Amino acid sequence: MSKKKHEEECGERAGGKVGSPIVVAASTDSMSMLTKPQLFGIYDEEIVESEDTEIYEEAKKSAGRMLDDMGSVGARSRVRTRSQKYMHLVSSLVILGISGIAYHQLSRNLHDNDLLHEDFTSRPLVLGVKLCQQLSFGMLPTWAGYAVEGILFGSLLPAVDYWRRISVGKVNLSGVLRSINAMLGVSFGIRRVEWSSSLQASGAWFLLDGILWLFFDGSFSVFLLGFAVGLVTAVTCYEEITDFSQLLYFIDFYFLGLLFFGRLGRYLYQR
After folding, report:
1. Exposed, middle or buried: residue 205 (CB in 10 Å: 0-12, 13-18, 19+)?
2. Which of 49, 76, 103, 107 could serve as 122's disulfide partner, Cβ 3.0–4.6 Å?
3. What is the pTM of this model?
């Protein structure tokens, strides 16, 4: 009896009644409760890292496709730019060549009512064509020779600008057209006006060239270059010159020609 009573007292001290069942949690539930938070933290980080990796890879692939597209577009634009430059150069040379042929025709029909007769101012151009034909062993046609002279005339002033690193203003098409009208107007005036002498006509043209130079350009390099070209053409035909007015005609015509071709060349080569 004393032993049984002792057990009952121990049970009461433990906070339970004698005979009441003691609930013990299953071992699997306990393990799950203990390990689930830790496992969730570990695998959650792995899931997040996996998602971040997938997003990074997708972004990298997208960026690679964008770079490839940009590279292909840049390559196509470079090809178009080169082709456009080539076509522009060819068209510029064609325009200068046609202008050279027209310039020769204008020189053939320039005359006054005194000492300036037809074909006189065209003789330096004819000599230039003969030189081109000799250099090409007679393979170059006559019209192509005048076209080459137009290309040389139109490229002379832009080449000087590039060599001296001269920064010139933008030449627009209206300025080129005005220079054409000025050249045609002067040539028509020389032919139609009844001059008292060739010296009067050539002197008036010389003064008009100065006005046109100030109006269209005004640079000292153009003035010196145009005057030098006029003197060179006069020297090539010095045997034909019998009067001072004829010398002035050479300077007048080729100075105005350089002014026109210079503006045309600057307009074509600036683009």
Report:
1. buried
2. 107
3. 0.69
